[in-house]
């Protein structure tokens, strides 16, 4: 399911979801202070372009908590809402349920991306 799922994923909304991560990453990289956050956005864009067959493990720490709070204020909530709405739309049909579940996985990830490891 991995290769075929990722190909269909790009056709049915994954391409635009990945572009949103790239756009946010570019906006963060405009400032010198935001470059580490922008680099994390590029890593999440890589996951978004091919999410099937990958799992996410969440970690923590005080610095990551502060960066995640900053992320929520400046882009995380909007991205989570975007992925959740697309996930609901994809879950309307039976065929779209696996793609909707991937959107929900990305919605959770877009709320707290720092400290998350993709396996």
Short recap of the structure:
By secondary structure, the chain is mainly alpha-helical.
Description of the structure:
Helix 1 runs antiparallel to helix 2 and helix 1 (2-28) packs across helix 3. The chain has helices spanning 2-28, 35-49, 62-90, 97-111, and strands at 56-58, 116-118. It has a two-stranded antiparallel sheet. The protein starts with a helix and ends with a strand. Helix content is 72%, strand content 5%. It has four helices and two strands; from the N terminus they run ααβααβ. By secondary structure, the chain is mainly alpha-helical.
Which short descriptors sum up this protein?
119 residues, mainly alpha, two-stranded antiparallel ribbon, 2 strands
Helical content band: over 70%
Order of helices and strands: HHEHHE
Taking all residues together, what is the mean pLDDT?
A: 87
Total E-strand runs: 2
Annotate the secondary structure layout:
Layout: H1 2-28, H2 35-49, E1 56-58, H3 62-90, H4 97-111, E2 116-118
Antiparallel strand pairs: 1-2
Helix pairs in contact: 1-2, 1-3, 3-4
């Amino acid at each position: 399911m991995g290769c075929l799922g990722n190909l269909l994923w790009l056709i049915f909304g994954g391409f635009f979801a990945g572009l949103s991560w790239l756009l946010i990453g570019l906006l963060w990289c405009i400032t010198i202070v935001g470059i580490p956050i922008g680099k994390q956005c590029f890593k999440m864009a890589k996951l978004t372009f091919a999410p099937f067959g990958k799992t996410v493990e969440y970690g923590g720490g005080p610095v990551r908590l502060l960066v995640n709070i900053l992320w929520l204020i400046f882009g995380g909530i909007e991205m989570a809402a975007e992925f959740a709405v697309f996930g609901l739309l994809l879950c309307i049909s039976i065929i779209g349920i696996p793609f909707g579940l991937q959107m929900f996985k990305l919605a959770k990830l877009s709320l707290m991306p720092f400290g998350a490891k993709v396996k």
